[in-house]
Amino acid sequence: MCDLSDDVVFWRQFNQRAISDPDFGHEAHVRAAYLVIQNHGFENALAPMRDGLRELLANAQLAGYEPRTGYHETITVFWLHTVRRHMAGRTFANSQEFVRSSPELLDKRLMLRHYSKDRLMSDEARARFIEPDLAPLPDQVPTAG
């Protein structure tokens, strides 16, 4: 485990795929989404986020960790979209300040306002982005990448 409180260190570790599984919980995912959007722009964020998460999962498995689930495209797209909405028109000193400003982002179940559990946990939703079945997302989601 390493100190990921500094965004420069966190971003470097994310890009080097050097964050161990215990260090990369939900809050770290939100921070990574924020930093990916900051560094690549929202329109270009999906590919680097997807690649980073897939490689981190693979590296965690090589290191002997067994992640509870594999990569999930719909969840990744949902969180990029949600993070972008919370960033809109606001500036933050760092990713931790961003997370503190929007505590609802720490609720992993936030997406269940839009998706039924069955739809979200489907093989199709893991493989590609699928539209929500309970409530529409407030604005367009990036699906290319």
Describe the model.
This protein is mostly helical and 145 residues long. Helices cover 50% and strands 0% of the residues. Helix 2 crosses helix 4 (73-87) and helix 2 crosses helix 5 (95-101). The longest helix is centred in the middle third of the chain and has 17 residues, at 46-62. It starts with 6 loop residues before the first helix and ends in an 18-residue tail after the last helix.
Using only CA atoms, what is the Rg? Answer: 15 Å
Give the low-confidence spans.
140-145
Order of helices and strands, N to C?
A: HHHHHHH
**What is the structural class?**
mainly alpha
Fraction of helical residues: 40-55%
Q: Tell me the major beta sheet.
A: none
Determine the mean pLDDT: 87
Distance between the termini: 31 Å
Q: Please indicate the count of domains.
A: 1
Instruction: Report the count of strand segments.
Output: 0
